[in-house]
Specification:
By secondary structure, the chain is an alpha/beta fold. Helices cover 38% and strands 15% of the residues. Helix 10 crosses helix 11.
């Protein structure tokens, strides 16, 4: 007896079960590298912003546990940092960096944040002169410069035994600092302090002084995270305690949503989610709003975590790519990452 023809019914007679129907097959779209690339977000050099630390001492200094990141010394107007950035720019396509200051002289008002010889201003001017194509952003906060290590000025009287931020006075101070960075040539100022109203204060002072073109990238969702410890070492922070009175609770999306509306309405050009690897839901929500680009900051603790795991597996590039692609897939347009040099080298090796 002849086998009954069953093709018209979409069945198979080879024991493999029902045939795949149109729209339910995946293997054809995975078979060729070109086809796989069509369905994936791309990790590109233009997305990367490289955070670097600049110090008020002449020699470069390694940051224990955070290598190869270092505090770049000011010898020869940051000659070694300039050489490092020039190499990444000319040979690997780095287009932007973000500066953080490291100073030895700290006081309650963070005076060194905007001193004319503060390392971020000296380094900023040197980069603009030597690498004019480089987009330079500068962190705007007081935590690197205050003797108490908080992100703002403190009120004279504490509450329940805890330091309390003077939000209004801090905003005025941050606006003054941001203006000095703009005068020194910053393309973007990045308030990371988490004060209410600081975007408006900075926007007003920039516009009233003719710096309308300077962008503001607001730290909009910044969690009171456990992943900042290496950063605090990197900036020689004097901070003890916690910042839960002004940074967001780890599990809260409500604060992130409200902060987004606040910062964008006050003039933020970009919003940051920090940390980022465990906060893809917030990145996605911000991206879906579609008002401004979203930056994902792979913070110091996330960097160390990924690097140590990569050392165990022996495949740094695979770990970097998967972790950073997840942020792009969630909706991030900009990746602020200490892995920027390694990513650029990885991309060039594939070109």
């Amino acid at each position: 007896m002849k086998k009954q023809r069953v093709e018209e019914h979409g069945d198979r007679d080879d024991g493999a079960g029902p045939a795949h129907r149109d729209g339910f097959t995946l293997h054809p779209s995975l078979h060729h590298p070109a086809a796989r690339a069509w369905s994936e977000p791309s990790l590109e050099g233009k997305r990367l912003m490289y955070p670097v630390f600049v110090r008020d001492q002449p020699e470069d200094k390694d940051i224990k546990g955070f290598e190869p990141n270092k505090q770049w010394g000011n010898k020869g107007k940051f000659a070694s940092l300039i050489a490092h950035l020039e190499d990444l720019h000319k040979n690997f396509g780095l287009t932007s960096c973000m500066l953080f200051g490291v100073v030895g002289e700290k006081d309650p008002k963070g005076t060194q944040a905007d001193s004319s010889n503060t390392p971020v201003i000296v380094a900023l001017q040197a980069i603009r002169e030597k690498i004019p194509e480089m987009f330079v952003a500068v962190d705007v906060c007081l935590c690197e410069y205050t003797s108490h290590g908080h992100c703002g000025l403190l009120k004279e009287h504490c509450l329940d035994g805890c330091d309390v931020i003077d939000n209004t006075a801090t905003n005025g101070r941050l606006a003054t600092v941001a203006l000095e960075y703009a005068k020194a040539g910053a393309h973007m100022v990045c308030p990371s302090d988490m004060m209410d109203g600081r975007v408006a204060a900075i926007k007003n002072v920039l516009e009233s002084n003719g710096f309308n073109h300077v962008m503001i990238m607001a730290y909009t969702s910044k969690k009171a995270s456990s992943f900042y410890a290496p950063f605090r070492l990197a900036v020689d922070s004097t901070f003890t305690g916690n910042r839960k009175r002004y940074q967001h609770p780890m599990g809260s999306t409500l604060h992130a949503d409200r902060a987004y509306e606040r910062d964008v309405s006050q003039g933020a050009d970009v919003v940051i989610v920090k940390p980022s690897l465990f906060y893809g839901d917030i990145i996605a929500k911000f991206a879906q709003k579609g008002m401004v680009p979203v930056a994902a900051y792979v913070v110091s603790g996330e960097y160390v975590m990924l690097k140590q795991y990569a050392q165990q597996t022996g495949d740094l590039h695979a770990v970097i790519e998967e972790s950073h692609l997840s942020l792009i897939r969630a909706g991030a347009s900009i990746l602020i990452t200490y892995f920027a040099p390694e990513i650029l080298k990885m991309l060039k090796s594939r070109a």
